[in-house]
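Name: Glycerophosphoryl diester phosphodiesterase
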Amino acid sequence: MIESLATLDRSGIAIDQAGHKTWLKWHRGHRYAGDISFTGQRIAEAMALGASVEIDLVRFNGAGFAVLHDETLNKATTGEGRVIEATESELRALRLRDPFGEPTAHKIMLIDDLGHLLRGIGRDGGAVLQLDLKEDSPAIRDEDIAAFAAAISPVAQSVILSAGDPEAVERLSLSVPEMPIGYDPCHHGAIERLKESRDFDGFVADAVAASPRARMIYLHHQLVLFAEDAGYDLVSAFHRAGRSIDAYTINSAIPAALPVVRRLLALKVDQITTDDPVGLQALLLG
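Structure predicted for Glycerophosphoryl diester phosphodiesterase:
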């Protein structure tokens, strides 16, 4: 089925403009508006189609990580309480909810499930799965790193690991040295400090120094546009430092988003994170 999808429909993958390709990253595994977050079906589809797709990783009460975004189970799953307090058996008994809060048949994936999925599916050469780590380094134990390495080492070239804590990325990546990594320097008050100081050169230098091996830098799209309004091209500055840029997140493919997305495309961002890649592409080309 996935192979036939790859030949029939490649919408929602990238935009080519003025000789530059910008990938439309499937935020939380969303290809269309209204998709259920973090389903194996969408991840497999993205990898077969050559898309860029993102999922989140959080700790649970066991070794490794769960493929979830929130600290609590209540909104996205049929469970309740904090994810960190849920055991493996408890998580495996739960199901994901759709955007309207209704239970679905989709199970919560743990890091070993994700590794097994990636090992068993076809992958177009351009496909990449971003593993966005929601934990800071002090929360990550040696057994979590070991579980991550066991699951991801066989598929290291299919993923990129990112986080707002460069130390957390470094620790995990040392266990899977062939895995590409990225860094999001927009956390822990960094945006507010930059807007006050307007030291854009310092921001770029600090980001590069914080994660010297990062290939991709993830920037809030409003920060990219704030810098442009101030006369500074953050995208070009990071490109000169040898980094690609992901601008996040365009939540809805609505006409009001068009001016923002067109500015990002004109700045030649390498990737735009969106919850509706197919809808956004149709809006841009319509």
